């Protein structure tokens, strides 16, 4: 390619994928010389950016467009990666329900004695935020579970499902898994070694801080301990409910 005419010369246009051409030599009033290729790139095909100015490399042509498109694609990939990371974080958030778990009649009950977390029955946790769709999944997947006393949820009612002759009842309120109620039919223990049939005397020895009156032989007495309600019948543990 020779010297330019009196009209401005074309901008340098590197071949697609190549680096921009090296700046051309200072142009005369009739245009600059063609730029040479940068290391590894293809030869540029134009002269200086403007006739009579010279010295500056031409603006990006095809190669520049390719670089821009590659940069745009890189940004799009980065954005997609960020979105995927956010979705993954949401999938393992605190409120996410696990795959359906079918508790047995002898699960360990862990009290929330400090009232800073949640009680657990086996591998399920109260106050987890799981909505009542989890209860319906359990009814479909777990043998022996059914609606208790017609409590199917809805406005003004709880959703209650039970097993073990209703000795284990899981309760949802306001679309949140709220509490576990245990009575005869539950054959497990608490993490403080309390079970159905435990005497009041044993309860007093191992559970300081309870409130309420001591039970007598005439009937039922309800006490509160930590995040639970403990019911004694004739001085032995009859029922307990934890939140």
Say how many strands there are.
10
Number of domains: 2
Q: Spell the H/E element sequence.
A: HEEEHEEEEHEEE
Q: Helical amount among residues, as a percent range?
A: 10-25%
Share in β-strands? 15-25%
> How far apart are the first and last residues' alpha carbons, in Å?
85 Å
Give the low-pLDDT segments.
1-71, 84-95
Q: Please tell me the overall pLDDT.
A: 71
**Numbering strands along the chain, what is their spatial order in the largest sheet?**
4-5-6-7-10-9-8
The total of helices stands at 3
Return the structural class: alpha+beta
Shape: globular
The largest sheet, given as strand count, sense and whether it forms a barrel, is: 7 strands, antiparallel
Radius of gyration: 38 Å
């Amino acid at each position: 390619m020779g010297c330019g005419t009196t009209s401005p010369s074309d901008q340098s246009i590197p071949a697609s994928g190549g680096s921009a051409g090296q700046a051309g030599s200072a142009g005369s009033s009739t245009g600059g010389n063609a730029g040479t290729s940068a290391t590894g790139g293809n030869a540029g095909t134009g002269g200086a950016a403007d006739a009579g100015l010279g010295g500056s490399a031409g603006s990006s042509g095809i190669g520049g467009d390719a670089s821009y498109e590659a940069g745009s694609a890189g940004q799009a990939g980065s954005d997609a990666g960020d979105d995927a990371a956010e979705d993954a974080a949401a999938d393992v958030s605190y409120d996410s329900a696990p795959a359906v778990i079918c508790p047995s009649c002898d699960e360990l009950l862990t009290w929330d004695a400090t009232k800073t977390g949640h009680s657990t029955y086996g591998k399920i946790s109260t106050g987890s935020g799981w909505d009542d769709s989890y209860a319906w999944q359990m009814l479909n997947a777990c043998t022996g579970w059914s609606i208790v006393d017609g409590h199917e949820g809805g406005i003004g009612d709880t959703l209650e499902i039970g097993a073990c002759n209703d000795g284990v009842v899981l309760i949802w309120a306001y679309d949140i898994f709220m509490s576990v109620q245990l009575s005869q039919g539950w054959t497990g223990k608490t993490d403080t070694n309390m079970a159905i049939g435990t005497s009041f005397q044993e309860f007093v020895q191992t559970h300081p801080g309870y409130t309420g009156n001591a039970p007598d032989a005439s009937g039922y007495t309800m006490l509160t301990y930590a995040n639970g309600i403990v019911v004694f019948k004739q001085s032995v543990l009859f029922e307990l409910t934890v939140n």
